[in-house]
């Protein structure tokens, strides 16, 4: 994908998110520590592309997605939607932003009201945004159900009457019914069978082309992100370690953490990696992250400079960025 010919629809600049940790007296004596969930993350989304965000559990992927949506207010940094600061938006502008940027949850059942029929649930955002009369809204509900591979009669059922794959289709239908420009997909297929995963992914790719959608796809599955993404960002302990076009990243990963992730995939072409990297130990605590490069405690190539200096994210090749002292 040629980024030079594309327009950035959403820009994330130096995003930070900290969560306070309170003692036994709660908020009375203030926070005794802070969880550094996201640290200095910068991302650009281009219209019509799929940006994959990959990393281990606890790396800050989901927090980044929620901070972009404003569901979790950022501690520092800016999120610009069409060159407009989301934090500075008026109520009417934020209403438009909510309509244009939607979220698909990892567990759709927990986000579906068990007491409401699906049709009523899908119609509710249309009522809130005053879109169409009752007949037009019902027609829109039936249309969006067909779009995600379900039938109009499903509108009269309750969430517990659907399978896991069908519920994920419902979660996608609820996001699509507002005709959004961007959809943040937070682990949308991680809890599904492989066959159902392929159906959902193929449907996402088809809908993206038909509706000109921009996707931020959050996952820990390397094979899934390779299939669906145009560009990929690798996260570790709240930071972006490497970012590149999908083909470039898989052809020649540069960061040791990226190489370790790829070498853990059984069917990855190991001829592109000189050796298999096995990570030792656990991901450090985000309450007290390591000094210097946050990956140096597990990196087999770490030097003294890695322990003291924070590596800057540098563009070492066109479109290929990496945060590592060892990469020229």
Description:
β4 (76-81) and β5 (84-85) form a beta hairpin. The strands form two sheets. The protein has an eight-stranded mixed sheet, with helices on both faces. α3 (118-128) crosses α4. It has helices at 61-69, 91-100, 118-128, 134-147, 164-176, 194-211, 222-228, 246-251, 256-263, 304-308; strands at 8-23, 26-46, 50-54, 76-81, 84-85, 101-104, 182-186, 214-219, 231-236, 239-245, 314-317, 320-322. It is α/β, with parallel strands linked by helices and 328 residues long. It has one domain (3-115, 158-322): P-loop containing nucleotide triphosphate hydrolases (Rossmann fold), CATH 3.40.50.300. The protein is 31% helix and 26% strand. The longest helix is centred in the middle third of the chain and has 18 residues, at 194-211. The protein has ten helices and twelve strands. The radius of gyration is 21 Å and the shape is globular. Mean pLDDT is 89; it is low at 1-5.
Question: What secondary-structure arrangement, pairings included, does this model have?
Answer:
Layout: E1 8-23, E2 26-46, E3 50-54, H1 61-69, E4 76-81, E5 84-85, H2 91-100, E6 101-104, H3 118-128, H4 134-147, H5 164-176, E7 182-186, H6 194-211, E8 214-219, H7 222-228, E9 231-236, E10 239-245, H8 246-251, H9 256-263, H10 304-308, E11 314-317, E12 320-322
Parallel strand pairs: 3-8, 3-9, 6-7, 7-8
Antiparallel strand pairs: 1-2, 1-4, 4-5, 9-10, 10-12, 11-12
Helix pairs in contact: 3-4
Strand content: 25-35%
Report the order of strands and helices. Answer: EEEHEEHEHHHEHEHEEHHHEE
Straight-line N-to-C gap: 25 Å
CATH topology category name: Rossmann fold
What is the helical fraction, as a range of percent?
Answer: 25-40%
Kindly provide the name of the CATH class: Alpha Beta
Provide the residue-averaged pLDDT: 89
Question: What's the count of strands?
Answer: 12
Structural class: alpha/beta
Largest β sheet strand count, sense and barrel closure: 8 strands, mixed
Total separate domains: 1
Widest sheet, order of strands: 6-7-8-3-9-10-12-11
DSSP helical segment count: 10
Q: Shape from CA axes?
A: globular
What would you report as the Rg, rounded to the nearest angstrom?
A: 21 Å
Organism: Paenibacillus solani
GO molecular function, one term: ATP binding
Keywords: ATP-binding, Nucleotide-binding, Transport
Pfam families: ABC_tran, oligo_HPY
């Amino acid at each position: 994908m040629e980024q030079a010919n594309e327009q950035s629809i959403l820009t994330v600049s130096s995003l930070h998110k900290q969560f306070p940790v309170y003692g036994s007296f709660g908020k009375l004596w203030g926070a005794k520590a802070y969880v550094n969930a996201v640290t200095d993350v910068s991302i650009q989304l281009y219209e019509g592309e799929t940006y994959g965000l990959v990393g281990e559990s606890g790396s800050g992927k989901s927090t980044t997605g929620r901070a972009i949506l404003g569901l979790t207010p950022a501690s520092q940094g800016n999120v610009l939607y069409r060159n407009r600061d989301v934090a500075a938006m008026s109520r009417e502008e934020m209403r438009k932003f909510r309509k244009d940027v939607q979220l698909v949850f990892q567990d759709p059942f927990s986000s579906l009201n068990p007491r409401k029929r699906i049709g009523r649930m899908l119609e509710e955002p249309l009522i809130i945004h005053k879109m169409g009369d009752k007949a037009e809204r019902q027609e829109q509900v039936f249309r969006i159900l067909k779009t995600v591979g379900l039938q109009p009669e499903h509108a009269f059922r309750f969430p517990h009457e659907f399978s896991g794959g069908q519920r994920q289709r419902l979660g996608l239908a609820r996001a699509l019914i507002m005709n959004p420009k961007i959809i943040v997909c937070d682990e949308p297929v991680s809890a599904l069978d492989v066959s159902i995963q392929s159906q959902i992914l193929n449907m996402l790719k088809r809908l993206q082309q038909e509706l000109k959608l921009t996707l931020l796809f959050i996952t820990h599955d390397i094979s899934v992100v390779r299939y669906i993404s145009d560009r990929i960002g690798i996260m570790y302990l709240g930071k972006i370690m490497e970012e590149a076009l999908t083909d470039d990243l898989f052809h020649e990963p540069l960061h040791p953490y990226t190489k370790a992730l790829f070498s853990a995939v059984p069917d990855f072409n190991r001829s592109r990696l000189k050796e298999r990297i096995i990570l030792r130990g656990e991901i450090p605590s985000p309450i007290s992250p390591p000094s210097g490069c946050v990956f140096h405690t597990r990196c087999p190539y770490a030097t003294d400079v890695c322990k003291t200096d924070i590596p800057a994210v540098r563009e070492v090749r066109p479109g290929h960025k990496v945060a590592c002292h060892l990469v020229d």
